[in-house]
Amino acid sequence: MAIFFTSDTHFGDSRVLRIDKRPFKTIPEHDEALIARWNETVSPEDEVWHLGDFALHARPERIDELLSLLHGRKHLIIGNNDGQGTLAAKGWESVQAYAELNVDGRAVVMCHYAFRTWKNMSRGWIDLHGHSHGKLKPQTRQYDVGVDLWDYRPVTLDTILSTKRRRVPAHA
What we know:
single chain; alpha/beta; 5-stranded mixed β-sheet; 4-stranded mixed β-sheet
């Protein structure tokens, strides 16, 4: 079992095509590509921490459908665009605003928003966040796990920490 991180999938949200210049012509194409890339990366036994902004402008039935299509046991860290339909969806193992996790001996704090400081920052803890779509200046031990930076797919902590570049070129 592997642990993956992601955020800002924005399923159903046409704004990401324009604002974030995602390389898809339509939202159905966008959503299908993100589902395919997620499932190419994550197995049904894996765990995925989604750090917010899962879906917007999607009916609750569509949110349930999306979660059922995506591999893995899914946890949600609430983002500013996660409405009641997302929060109440049946497919989440847990839903919270903040979480701490130990991944292979590394302590991680997770929130949708990037922190300037965080718990045990001086002791090597790592801050994972979303929300900024790769637009923040990198800070030591702080990583944006948003799909815009990671080829529109979830990513492991080992991959995050071993990648010198903070932005991975995406291809549609």
